[in-house]
Design a protein that fits this description.
The complex is a heterodimer. By secondary structure, chain A is of the alpha/beta class. A six-stranded parallel β-sheet of chain A has the order 1-12-11-10-13-14, with helices on both faces. In chain A, helix 10 packs antiparallel against helix 11 and helix 12 runs parallel beside helix 13. Chain A is globular. In chain A, about 55% of the residues are buried. The mean pLDDT of chain A is about 95. Chain B is globular and about 85 Å long. The chains are: A alpha/beta, B alpha/beta.
Amino acid sequence: MNAMGCRDAPVLRERGQREVFCGLTSIIWLHRKMQDAFFLVVGSRTCAHLLQSAAGVMIFAEPRFGTLILEETDLAGLADAQQELDREVAKLRARRTDIRRLFLVGSCPSEVIKLDLGKAAERLTRQYAPHFQVINFSGSGIETTFTQGEDSCLAAMAEELPETDSRQLLLAGALPDVAQHQALDLLQQMGVSPVTVLPSLSAADAPSIGKNTVFALTQPFLAETHDALRRRGAHHIAAPFPFGEEGTTAWLRAIAQAFSVDPDLFDRVTEAPRRRARRAVAKAHEILHGQSVFFFPDSQLEIPLARFLTRECGMRAIEIGTPYLHREIAAPDLELIEAGPVISEGQDVDRQLDRVRAARPDLTVCGLGLANPLEAEGLTTKWAIELVFTPVHFYEQAGDLAGLFSRPVRRRTALQQMRAA
Amino acid sequence: MRLTLWTYEGPPHVGAMRVATGMKKLHYVLHAPQGDSYADLLFTMIERRDRRPPVTYTTFQARDLGSDTAALFKTACREAAERFQPDALIIGSSCTAELIQDDPGGIAATMGLNIPVIPLELPSYQRKENFGADETFFQIVKNLAKPCERTKTTSCNLIGPTALGFRHRDDITEITALLEDMGIAVNATAPMGASPATIRQLGRAHFNVLMYPETGEAACRWMERALKLPYTKTIPIGVGAVREFIDEISALTGIAPYLDTHRLRFPWYSASVDSTYLTGKRVFIFGDGTHVATAARIARDEMGFDVAGIGCYNREQARMIRSLAKDYDVDPLITDDYLEVESRISELVPEMILGTQMERHIGKRLGIPCAVISAPVHVQDFPARYSPQMGIEGANVIFDSWVHPLVMGLEEHLLHMFREDFEFHDDAGASHHGHPADLRASSADAESAGLSEASDILWLKEAEKELRKVPFFVRGKARRNTESFALERGLTEIDVETLYEAKAHYAR
């Protein structure tokens, strides 16, 4: 195998119709992660409808997100948008006294009419200081794709973090609680401390940042956040992403080296969970090895997941599509993927469908709009959105992650007889 | 600006998608940024469609805005026409494209495509999904349908069913059979299942059956004028309405009315003694105007319910619902704000809600059973089994699905009889619902006298204990009734006496 794997592989850049979510979709998991935050989208009925549809089921409580729908009067300039915002935020504060952080989220329409939400956020923050913070970011479909909404949210938060000079590790990326606890626990056992997390559960425990902060990304789509943290003086620990036994070990090892953790201690801490992870993945390996996989662009998790599936589950990648390729962040994972698959960035969905039909992979990873139509054509699919909603990081979830891919294959086998009839 | 947490309707271009996706050989070129393609999953996931909606999104990005989004549209439009070879194109803008004013309809008209190109004007910041569907279908019909020779025997068109419609799939089957029984053939069903060629032939029918005014009324009105096709006004949902529908068709065609009722079980099920407990149950009805109006009639005249309130979310039907509310002597609620619906339900404290998936959630929160009667749709609204709302089987389906959320008649009596039993107690809920019954923890738990909801009234311990003996599904109402009874009389404490005074006061 080439030592550099796919690191310098040519990239097929596509420009055409995309079948992807916009960044507003990130709100679905971000609002669960920050329990004192409200996400206020300034947009259209389409934005509200997207959030509702992407949430799949309505959340059984008044949600901590909503859409300020622009109306004719706003567009015609008859109403002062900034005044309208102030009024709606005041109403929201009166109804939801538990809210400490308010995110004003830009959308396609608000950006096209050049509504200055940054200015509004500054004004409102001054007005309600100190116990109520207003932050602006964009989740618009003309700027962001799906998980990039989280990226622009965390990048905006990074700008606002207080300054510190103390040596610390910061983990950036919204993770399900169970996965985050496991990571913090492993790092603690290695004596890495203090460790802070962005985003924090509440405004009260927001991390500080400075030139002695080193950070690791837990998600591959945090390019802007990466840049924002570096602008604040923090140093990035480059590593493969913590999916599967190999990825988790490499990610932890990069941190351990930055914190001069004794290699023996590292081995002692990771030995048992590594064994468990390998055992759990082995079950899926039986089903997945030798099977081919094709990724449509969706969440930017595609490259690290392709690394996991090819190296730990024995699959063969045909095409790895990603909405956006950040060379520097993806490099450690790309290096580990054996040369061969097409790496594509962006999308022209009809052409990509032509390619998938020609390749007829054993498993196609794609969005919800494509999954059933491809199943109807006889392709087995894994819908990608589950990968961002389900705990899949670190050792104890490695088996679950592999299971997400092996289940559709097992199901195809189980139903073979009925479907043939 | 208006704060919206949940919406009943999507934007108007989603209505246009419902028409396009229901049809064949029609393609929709939508000038829109990338995220708008989320709408595909409504069709592929909620309705489990096995094909992508026939929609091309031009997918413009921020960097295109300064340059040439119109050129991007042209390329997308030409490629779509070449790749999908449709018999007609519809052209529109989503909310963002409306702001950049590229006039995609005008551009497409000058591209020299050799198929009909139908531009849509759907104002995203004023109107909503149902309008979008109605207007789109109207434009398609207006552009393609021409007067033509009538079929020799009496035939009709079924107008209004779309993709993502509430039980449209099965309503079509039911109404087609109903008409066949009368000797009337269906010339065309549209938009669902129709191609542009089918639309051209709509004029062969003798009349139209308007199944869903929400999505088909504008087209029916136009066809009445331009093609001389009268259309039916009765929506055949419910026993009485189905009979009236048959009579209306007979009057339109001169064909003798005929209705095969041997499978109609609703009237007997409703009359049989087990249904006695349904008498006077107070229901709140909310949804799209058409389904609310039909549900109100069934509720009062066929189930023996007491209609406590009605309302609709689509303003297009506001006038009809307002006048209906007068007949039922209730205040109409016309709103698309679910918080307003929730507060109206909290005020009225109905024993049951007939609503949409939103009201199902409101009901869950307030502990009120709910049956779903209308869009917006959920994956549950596309059952594998045959499950129409219209016609004979529709009436049977409605009886079952409205009764299902309630505790069954005999079971209600048994709960009364055994309410002190540790296992068969009232918190156990209805036995036909899947959740496990909690064994009653301890008598101490049951005695923990709560503060009243109106906080200035004190429930004495004995009264609180007595209240616990009231079955759970009416306990909330008993509590509220007793408190408002006490408030009216300026009482600050509630004892057992007050509880029974209130019970007598509210008895019916």
